[in-house]
């Protein structure tokens, strides 16, 4: 009995790694999906093989092949994990509380209002659930999702859904032409985008969702924007515009911030009448039936009620 206990003690911590390996058939992908160093995964698999008493992997070129022993063990490991998850959920249900951790990646602009509103709505009924938040460019968020480091991503625009990821548009908002105070278009009720084709643009760096959207809009208007300055967030973009260093295309500003001398930042927003200037904001997730239960619950809440929760946004 003691020997059985020792064997199980050595094997149980490795079960999540074995199950993920069975799904990915690749050590590196397993490490990314679980957020672990590859060396940690390799050592854990070696310990599991020692407990089993036979190799679990065979090297095949740059990849690996599961041995018959691994193919026999992994389904039972998955059943064991499912049983533990079910028992844990039942135990927590008895306590009347929700627990868990949800990892969300989001673009900078959604940290000001959109994401906090969604988290507040979920947390009010699930106070025991915690959120791990990471912000960055659109591509950064999608990379985190693909690697398994994030459960969900809030990006604009959302990618086309496929067998690996799901995505749905939550709302759409207009984009504005941002010009310096005193610019010839500053008092205009609306303008075509090609009215500024000869001016320098203040742009976000490549990899940001707004960068690709602005480039596509300018292409639709018949020109390629001349980049005057680059930034990594929209606050910086508007600040550079206010200094007269170019024009920009951006979502409507939520607030006007005081400049150092007490005045209002020197920029104006002008409606773009052509081409149609909007951006879609959407939620993206990994299509994994065995994914974290709380992340799936948060996703379902956002898809069911997110449009109403984000009622301050201009939706279509």
Q: What are the key terms here?
A:
316 residues, alpha/beta, Arc Repressor Mutant, subunit A, D-Maltodextrin-Binding Protein, domain 2, 3 domains, 4-stranded mixed sheet, 10 helices, elongated
Description:
With 316 residues, the protein is an alpha/beta fold. It folds into three domains: 2-94, Winged helix-like DNA-binding domain superfamily/Winged helix DNA-binding domain (Arc Repressor Mutant, subunit A); 99-169 and 286-309, Periplasmic binding protein-like II (D-Maltodextrin-Binding Protein, domain 2); 176-276, Periplasmic binding protein-like II (D-Maltodextrin-Binding Protein, domain 2, 3-Layer(aba) Sandwich), CATH 3.40.190. It has ten helices and 13 strands. The protein has helices spanning 2-11, 15-24, 27-34, 38-52, 68-95, 114-123, 138-147, 209-220, 234-242, 293-309; strands at 57-60, 63-66, 100-107, 129-136, 152-155, 165-174, 176-180, 191-192, 200-204, 226-231, 248-250, 267-274, 278-286. The strands form four sheets. It has a five-stranded mixed sheet, with helices on both faces. It has a four-stranded mixed sheet with strand order 8-12-7-11. Strands 1-2 form a two-stranded antiparallel sheet. Strand 9 (200-204), helix 8 and strand 10 (226-231) form a beta-alpha-beta unit. Helix 3 (27-34) packs across helix 4 (38-52). The radius of gyration is 25 Å and the shape is elongated. The model has no long low-confidence stretch (mean pLDDT 88).
